[in-house]
Design goal:
The chain is an alpha+beta fold. The chain is built from ten helices and twelve strands. The structure holds adenosine-5'-diphosphate (ADP).
Length: about 350
Amino acid sequence: MPDALDPSSPATLALIEALGSPVVLLDAQGQARAISPAMKALIPALGLGQPMALVMRDPDLIEAIEQVARAGGRQVIELVERVPVERTFRIHIAAPGGAAGFLRRPVLLTFEDLSEQRVTERMRVDFVANASHELRTPLASLLGFVETLQGPARNDAAARDRFLAIMREQGLRMARLVDDLLSLSRIELRAHLAPDTAVDLSNICREIVDSLTLMARERDVALALRTPQAPVQVAGDRDELLRLMENLVENAIKYGRKGGEVTIEVRDGEAEASVSVRDDGPGIAPEHLPRLTERFYRVDTNASREAGGTGLGLAIVKHIVLRHRGRLTIESEQGEGATFKAVLPRYGADTRPDQP
Ligand code: ADP
C-alpha cells in the first residue's frame, strides 16, 4: 500500500491542490511538491520544485522543518515577516504518517495568516489606552478640585463658585466622550445592516443648519445651504445622518475661519446623492488627511480640546458613511479651507446590502 503522504502520488497532490487553506507539501529533500491555491496566493514566490528554505529564509522555520523531517511529529511556530509589508504567520509543520525507514520524511506545512488579527488586536489595545487617557485627564482635574474644596478652599465662597464651574466643564467633557464612545460602538455593532428607510438628505441638512445657527453666530460664521428643489432621498438611518451632518458642520464652524462662511451643498444623482460641507478656514495639511478619521486623531490636540472636541467626531462620520455603503472624501489645501463630502446610495437604487 502506498504511503499516504507519498509526495509523488497523484492522489496526494490532487488532495492538497483541492484544499482551501494555505498548504504546501515538501518532499524528503525539502522541495515543494504540491502547493494549494491559497498557499500560492499567500506566497507567490513559492514554486513547485523549489526548496522551501530558499523562499522563506527564516532560521527558526528552517530548523523546525529540519527537525520534523528527521524526527517526525509536529511543531507549530509563529513567524513575522517585515518586508515588503508586515505579516504574521502561524505555521503548523507535520510529518503525518511518516513511515519508518526514511532518513528524512516528507513534511506538510499549513499556514495561518494572523496579520489582520494582529492589527485588530493592536488597534483594540491602542483604543483602550487612548480612551482611558482621555477620561483620566478630566477625572484627575475633578478629583483635584474636590480635594481643594474639602480642604484649603472650604470656606472660600468665590473660589467655590469658580471651581464648581470648572468641574462642570470637566464633567461635561467626560459625558461627551462617553456618549461618542457609545455612539461609535452602536454604529459598529450594526455595520453589517445597511439602513433601508427613505430619508430626505435636504431635510436633514435644514434641521442641522437650524440647530447650529446659534453656534455659528457666536463665531460670526455664515451658514449657506444649497439643495435641489425636489427631495433627495437616500437609503438611510435618520438619526445617524443627523449625527453625520452635525459633526461635519460643527467641525466646519469650529475649525473654519472666524467670520467666515460654511457652505452645505446637497446634490442628487442617478444612483447616488451627495452632501458636502465646505469651509474657508486654514484647511488641513496633506500629511494629516489620511489619518483624520482615526479615533482620537487630531491635528492640534489643544485646539480640539478647547473647542470641546473628543477626537471621535470624524471616526463616527466615517462609520456612519460605511454603514450606509457610501464613501467619504476629504479635500483640503492649506489656507484654502476644507471640503468634506459624503456620497450615499439613493433610496431604491440597486444597493447590495451584503457588500461592505
Ligand atoms: P474633534 O472632536 O477633535 O473635533 P474630529 O474627529 O471631529 O475630532 O476631527 C479630528 C480633527 O480633524 C480635529 O481635531 C481637527 O484638527 C481636524 N478637523 C476636522 N474638521 C476640520 C476642518 N473643517 N478644518 C480643519 N481641521 C479640521
